[in-house]
């Protein structure tokens, strides 16, 4: 048995009113990749924050033993000195600085009064090579894609002489190819003796990369699965996470009669708002019928969100050309108001940035897109507004004390439900759902799927954009595959498989 | 009340509690002088322009912590134009008033256009406006003072000696009209509160506890009655108070009850989400600044009426009074939160501090220091409590 590098013993951490961690134990051996899984709010990130010193010694109970010695970290710098480096979910890079500057931010080469730029960029280039990036370290961060930025974060960790690398949802915003590359990189590091702890929601990735999997539920460690000893597959992990086996991850849809074409998009072309010569959406044609869920699959950056937003009252892009036909009639949607009036709703992928007013209560968010329905002559009927919000809260099973609660205090899954409520209240016939289950836990996902089923059962049309292939396959009646701004395939529910969709994408890629 | 309820209460009514404490402090330090009817009257008459400007400023701040630096200069410019028209050109008072309002609105629209549709940062646009309209005021007045002799105008906007609503009863030493107005106001207030409570109850909505409603109603009624009583013992209702009340009621209603008002909060809360909800966010910015111009015009009229003259130096630092009142009154420096009643409390607090220190004979320079520190403290409170709630 290899040496135990890190042991966290009986860690208990309480916040006012909540016990976030309750006697958590974690053992990590040197040179292994250890995955932490659990639903949102289970306590994974809290545990890692305890380890890295964000919550300093004394604010929690229990011991951290690293490399054989008891550690009392008072701040992040202390843990980094020991070689424990955490890479957070949200990238912490500064867009208008170079890769090299970012890499050594707070850890500058040279003297305090004189930064040694030769050393900085020289060392940066070495680390970039290790993570397999060909870019020069003098490139600005804003000029490289998200996937590469994630690699820069890892290179930055290497520059701090990381021995234990903690990655919090490293692939959350990456497409499948980039994710695979990142995971393979971790496997390569492992061979060189690096130890990693990885937090992830993507169970297929966890199963692929991890030697051991520790499941956390409600602030306690439930079990640790060891590769080769225990059976490791997605269903097994989910059972641990939710405490029960989810027999079917996608609810069965009652027989819904698929009706006439509701929305048709023809020869739709959209140019980038800044680089106007670049086509972001290129000659796309598709249609959706009443009572139908149409999935749009594709990699990050395939132009799916851009397509949806440009259709939704030209809220993205310039030089938009093409035809929109709703219920057999051609329409011209000048702005978002127009789109809503024509019964289209776009539920954004970025609920915090583009969807909700976090500092406002649930009721105000619920009615924002359709205020006229709760007001007469521009005067809001607050009682009616309250009643509407309560109604949707009950319908969608949003967990909250009252609808006066600020949306910012809700969990991701419940925020998503409020966002859905907002658009359902706008009473659309066509809903475009952009990554409707991103970053929410398994239980909430299931409930969102049920809501989608109810919507189509009521004769609405749903266009679902999703990067998760199982979700697209499980929910859609028909799937369009998008790549590089174009539709590169259309597959029916019956013939759709993950392999088929991936091959559509790969065959169409022009390659770099 | 449990401990949590007390904390909740303190959090909700922080500024009112501070106002009571500060008033109490000055009452003690000035030997009760600050509570004399005459001083209560002065508090309103001297600060009428602050109430009006702060209400307008609130709308700008709601959209995202944006401020309007030009209001002081606009006040001066509008006043200058009006004084010139009335006194030098012999234009009819009513025409002059309409022209002044239109000039203010046009200036607001001009600034609003650049901010809303061209996306010039409000700070820069209004900084430019501050210079431009201060300069133009000098040009219009030719660097001179114009004194205003038009009685109707002065009485209408609360200047001079006769700036009170005429008393209908003529009782010696006590203005019954004023007291009656206070009683009517209280009656209306109680009816509205009760009606709201009963409607909610009959429809089966959540009402909150009846006792807290009762306490709130009784305390507010008592304050209004005491206030009316104090003014009755002096000269009655100052005309300026009527203007302030009209503005406060209109804008209190708009911000809390109408869809347009809701949009100001929404834009400040999350502009992108608001845009994607089908709301024309550019129009919201435009409205905020156009309206600020209009209210600056009203403040300009109140100012020249009170001073019975127009001078190129009028309105200096008015923007700071308005901005300060908003932030002290609980508007967030990030936008999206703040109410008209809150801003009024902020403005009253500033007024009380001013008045109290003047009565105590504190040096004017130290008064500025104190006001500055109070403003800083209010914003620190906002920022820190935001951080905690995250």
TL;DR of this structure?
The complex is a heterodimer of chains A (512) and B (390). Chain A is of the alpha/beta class and 512 residues long. Chain A contains 17 helices and 22 strands.
Task: Report on the architecture of this protein.
The complex is a heterodimer of chains A (512) and B (390). Chain A contains 17 helices and 22 strands. Chain A is an alpha/beta fold and 512 residues long. Chain A folds into 3 domains: 239 residues, P-loop containing nucleotide triphosphate hydrolases (Rossmann fold, 3-Layer(aba) Sandwich); 178 residues, Rossmann fold (3-Layer(aba) Sandwich), CATH 3.40.50; 74 residues, no CATH class. A 6-stranded mixed β-sheet of chain A has the order 6-7-8-3-9-10, sandwiched between helices. A 6-stranded mixed β-sheet of chain A has the order 16-19-20-13-21-22, with helices on both faces. In chain A, a hairpin with a 2-residue loop joins strand 4 and strand 5. The longest helix of chain A has 16 residues. Chain A is globular. The model of chain A has no long low-confidence stretch (mean pLDDT 86). By secondary structure, chain B is mostly helical. Chain B is 75% helix and 1% strand. Chain B has 16 helices and 2 strands. Chain B has a two-stranded antiparallel sheet with strand order 1-2. Chain B is globular and about 65 Å long. The two termini of chain B are 26 Å apart. The interface between A and B is medium-sized, with 34 and 26 residues.
**Distance between the terminal alpha carbons of chain A, to the nearest Å?**
44 Å
Q: Helix count of chain A, per DSSP?
A: 17
Most residues in contact, chain pair and counts: A-B, 34 and 26 residues
Order of helices and strands of chain B: HHHHHHEHHHHHHHEHHH
The N- to C-terminal Cα distance of chain B equals: 26 Å
Average pLDDT number of chain A: 86
Please identify the oligomeric state.
heterodimer
Indicate the percent of residues in helices of chain A. 25-40%
Give the tally of β-strands of chain B. Answer: 2
Unreliable parts of chain A? none
For the sheet with most strands of chain A, the description reads:
6 strands, mixed
By CATH, the architecture of the largest domain in chain A is named 3-Layer(aba) Sandwich
- Beta-strand content bin of chain A: 25-35%
- Broad CATH class of the largest domain in chain A: Alpha Beta
- Give the strand order, joined by hyphens, for the main sheet of chain A: 6-7-8-3-9-10
Helix content of chain B: over 70%
